[in-house]
Amino acid sequence: MTPRGIDVRPTTSAPRLLWVPAALAVALLVLPVVALVVRADWSTLPADVTSTAARQALALSLGTSLVATACCLLLGVPLALLLARASGWGADVLRALVTLPLVLPPTVGGIALLYLLGRRGLVGRSLDAWFGVTIPFTTTAVVIAQVFVAMPFLVLGLEGALRTSGTRYETVAATLGAGRWTTLRRVTLPLAAPGLLAGTVLCFARALGEFGATALFAGNTPGVTQTMPLAIYAAFNGAGVTQGAAVALSLLLVVAAVAVLLVARAWRPGRMGSA
Amino acid sequence: MRRLDRPRRHAARSREPGTLVADVGVRRGSFELAAALTVEPGRVTAVLGPNGAGKSTLLALVAGTLGVESGHVSVGGRVLTRGGAGAGRTGAAAPDGLEPAVQVPVARRAVGLLGQDPLVFPHLDVLENVAFGPRAAGMRAGPAHDEARGWIEAVGLGTLQRRRPDELSGGQRQRVALARALAARPDALLLDEPFAQLDVRTAAELRDVVREHVRATRVPTVLVTHDVVDVLALADHVVVLHDGIVVEQGDPVTVLTDPVHPFTAALADLNLLRVTLTTPTTPAAAGPTTRAGAPRLLRSPSLDLTLSGGGMAQWVEKASPGVTFSTHSELQLTFSPGDVRIVGSGATGSAGDEGGGAGGLVWSAVVVDVERGPRGLRVRTTDDVLVDVAAASAVALDLRPGTALTLRVDAADVRARSV
């Protein structure tokens, strides 16, 4: 006799009560975007999105975010590699310092960058005097601000992945005659590829959304330092444009962000080692 | 130009494999290892020992993931590690004239490693895994793949070249790891319990593959294991490590049939007893008297063994020719649990029929516990002497913990050696 009507769901599924807070979480994350879509003035939206200001801001945002992400990769990957293999209190302190931009309000980061690289800043003074280079309120400043706030996402993401994959495969590679660079290129980084990818995506997304540090350190000059978040803020505050334009620009940014996330999701690190 | 000074470019690999020599000393906390090994080309030396004996440390010293404080490791005369002047952090002033310390990096030692976990690179397919060593040595992809294909064939995975590791069984992964280690053309090979996680049949197949290729490539091989089967199937020589020192070594059959150390005896499934000779009353003249003067073997602290039937002097002489024993000399006895007979149990007390023709040892013991054994039940008795009992006869005996037993083992089944 086969028992009938018995619920055979796997017993490992999560408790049903969890659905309530989980649903609330989804609502909190998704409903604001829905509200944005509802609020949008669809008659003026095409014009708002294709306006010069919007196109300039979008191009600047994408461009600076890409450059900032590249800088984060160039500097952050080595830092993550060293941190992942370091131990002792020195490494702990370093790890805490790397996390600092995550917990600081970005505006504080902007002020700090001004005091470092501003014309009278700690380093900026010498840059100005010796090379005639001024950084604040330039596109370079936008990139630096983005690197400052976005780097921790890459470093922490990659470091976690490196720690998870451990050093056993690296030891095997060494016993097979692979030197340090070969091991790094063919074993360490490919094994950490998912973490590296996730870190890079987060890093890019954070750079794209960066507002506070940019506003203080780079200013709000259209075409030079006015990225999307700044353009949206300016539009929302009614600086010559309507709130409708702010909504339109916000939607554009949302679409851009979702597109980046989807592309990253679709691309799975595959046979990277078979160069 | 850097690659030219690498010790093992593939083009230059026609030289005969050399002998692996390790004579190493190292201290880690309270643990101290001082062991020596010599493995000739094409031979397998098994290192046996309980957990914590220093087996892994010994492998790490040869593989180069750990440095030595004293001694050296070399293969075919090429020094891979040498302690001495400036080595270690002991701070002891090195006498002048010592050769400088050497620690060749892992990547340049040409010492292959095959562990319990195959650690096949998960992001590479079988072909790329096996080609890893040749590519790391500077070979181009084409020739490296050709070479890898040969090794993949050799370990019997010819059709699986493009499989990814997660599509393979445990045994197949271990074969990939073996092919990968051999494709790197190591000067020495270290096997760290490589069969421990495989089922019996897969392990047997892989042992064959390993034996075949160690013989064919003539690579000197060190095998660390707990498993007697590994030793008997693969090893030419056995080294037993205990608390960081080599307690016995020799050819596998001798070591396992006539063990010196309790650990080896347990591994070989033999009882090992240490006894002190005593002769209670009469002087230890040649001919033992029949009654009160019968010589006895006394094992301190808790067993009293009596030699019945024949004279002890002859038995001792027979068991260990050329050695004369005097009163109070110490003997180490080994015998199989299967050769111990229960000649009396419970209230029946001491043996009544002990005076048979052949000599034998008789003693009283108590059951400690009973478990399943190779022939039915295995009874642990006083001083951890194991007794195998056929299931049928076990029913008649009342084998509960605490039951008194009289045990007998024929002198012919006992090996004795002086200590």
From TrEMBL, chain A:
GO terms for cellular component: plasma membrane. One of its GO terms (molecular function) is molybdate ion transmembrane transporter activity. The chain crosses the membrane at residues 17-38, 58-84, 96-117, 129-158, 187-208, 245-264. InterPro entries: MetI-like (IPR000515), MetI-like_sf (IPR035906), ModB_ABC (IPR011867), NifC_ABC_porter (IPR006469). Residues 58-264 form the ABC transmembrane type-1 domain. CDD domains: TM_PBP2. Its main location: membrane. PROSITE patterns: ABC_TM1. It is found in: Cell membrane. It is a multi-pass membrane protein. Keywords: Cell membrane, Membrane, Molybdenum, Transmembrane, Transmembrane helix, Transport. Part of the binding-protein-dependent transport system for molybdenum; probably responsible for the translocation of the substrate across the membrane. NCBIfam families: Mo_ABC_porter (TIGR01581), modB_ABC (TIGR02141). Belongs to the binding-protein-dependent transport system permease family. CysTW subfamily. This is Molybdenum transport system permease. It comes from Cellulomonas gelida.
